[in-house]
Structures
1.
Amino acid sequence: MSAEGKDGQVADGDAASDADSLDLVRPPSPVNQPGTGVFSVLWGRPYSNQLWTYRFPVDQDEVTRLDRVHQAIRSAGLTFGPVDVLLDNPQRWPRLLDVGCGSGMWLTEVAVQFPRVDCVGIDFLEQQHVNAPRNVTFMQVNVPRGMGVLAAGSFDVVHIRQMIYAIPDYAGMLAQAYRVLRPGGILLIHEPNLLCYSAWQEYTPEQLGPALVQWSLAFRHGLSQRGVDMNVFNRMEQLAAAAGFTMTHPPHFHYHPLAPGNDNSEAQNETECTRALVAASRITIVEGGEYTHDTFSVLEGEVHAELDGHGAGGARARGLYSPWGFWWVRKE
Ligand SMILES: C[S@@+](CC[C@H](N)C(=O)[O-])C[C@H]1O[C@@H](n2cnc3c(N)ncnc32)[C@H](O)[C@@H]1O
């Protein structure tokens, strides 16, 4: 078991024991049958037995899903705020941290753009691409407690993306981001809220895509059973302020279609993102207790029909959008 010392530093950072002490929230569902090895195969896909909150598969399809999401949302910008000014600093070798870097696509693009920046990606799961540039380092760290191994004040920029549904202690993660940043450093936060909105005022989301709406509510329910608070999205400014950050600029909100109508490659990628997220959410939802594998499969089939334009909401599922927020805040 790790012992926490001064400044939140963890003296003995064993990842597996951190996992034991961190992921305490276990749903009361009768379908919960944790495996005994490092991975269990559930519904044909491998899942880590060491991360309890984040019940997403660890396989090539999941890496592809993460890369697709990256491709879909990068139009909102790779970074936000005056990050370039910090990273272009010729006086020294700036450092950047990506918390929960996933496949490492975001980090790799930043590393290519800023070859003089030391880019560190931390994640509990080993699913990073092997062809990252030389200025990228990947470390296995259990967030937020394991971040104690990173020195205080040692990064110019910290990036957090899509961690809202992975980390129950979001405030603790922001506190660690604050600790590892230098004064003047910037934290970037880029999160989805996983709710469905209607682009057309005369229709409710339920009329446009009933299965997609039902799925998003089931996913949020499954996440809440694991201690995740999706309301973090609406409280981001307060949470950042509580961690010590100053926010001088409003966030940038952008909206992504869940079932885009066009047949171009961008739209196909967005549709594939939705399809893959629904598939990846299976265990979270089934273990949440409201669905069995069979009823989830029915729901998934209905979602596919909506994505193909044949669902109960007809082609109108194309009017469903989901918001993302991009915040940048500073450590004074
Ligand atoms: C939805 S993915 C986001 C990946 C990446 N930030 C992106 O936007 O493409 C969430 C990531 O958090 C990682 N993760 C989940 N729980 C974690 C924990 N306790 N410590 C470290 N990483 C964790 C997962 O392995 C996964 O790579």
2.
Amino acid sequence: MPDLSFSEIKTLQRCHKLYQFVYVRNLTPIRESPKISIGRWIHAAIAAATKNEDPFGAILREYELAAKQAIIDEEIDNLRQIRDLAIGIIERFLAWHAKEFQGWQVYTDDQGPFVEREVSLQVSEDTRFIGIVDAVFQDPNGTLWVRDYKTQEDFYQHDREYEVLLDTDFQLALYVAALRSQKIPVIGGQHIYIRRKLPQWPKLTKDFKLSTQYILSDLETVQKAAELYGVEVPEELIRKLPKNAFFRHYETLISDIDVYRAIQTVLHAAHLISVLPQIGYAHHWHYRCPGCPFYEPCLSEWKGGDPEIILKANYKTREGGDPLGRAQDL
Ligand code: SF4
């Protein structure tokens, strides 16, 4: 059994057919979706900032790399928009992070700051979990936390939903176990959520007051707008503004029981991967399909068409070969 990563297990849990596309046939869309690009570029910028490098330079490098591969002008326009959005988000993120995590510092060992490092955990004789840790941070009391950054379009309203997500996150439990096995005494995990949006500028009403219609913004932007317009910020608007509109964080302690459960998840995935070639990679046509990178070929098959035609036109193998090359072997 080869090494298993978190994303491989998550893909398997999402849909067996998707697992077959990504990990058996090794396929990937020729063009990365904007959502994936922005998430990746933000991760690269935060990693650079944590290592005291230039976060904006990291975004520009990602942009230039993607722009070189663009074929039509429209793609370059989209990439420019992603670049500008990523820069705006990172400017705000760094200001928020400096305030929110005063006294925290990145954990540093003899290899330097613990940022984007590969870790592994042997979960059975023939199965190993591997992953890339976003960062390990030390709080003002000297306690170590493993950190995972998550970018998303919208936030849930209630903190409880995020707390449950973190409590059941087997990825961070495995990272904690892997770090503890390296004698790095991490106490728990931390999720940091980054919204893929910038604050909106509030509008003026016909009678020259700030609109109190619900807006996705923050107090700082609203105050700037009010100053520029020369108007007061209505109390009602302050009450309506979400407290943490663009960034949030949650922490949880990770116990041996959490680690045990996480290891069971990996072992179950390893077993499933070993039997799927015999039982088949069934479709799970369900609510998780919209947004799936293989939605189009699956929909075509669902309607009785030939998905291989769409695969040939819009997908490549990770090595860059013919997407149908492996189909004959399956
Ligand atoms: S579209 Fe749905 S059924 Fe097809 S691979 Fe994606 S998640 Fe699975």
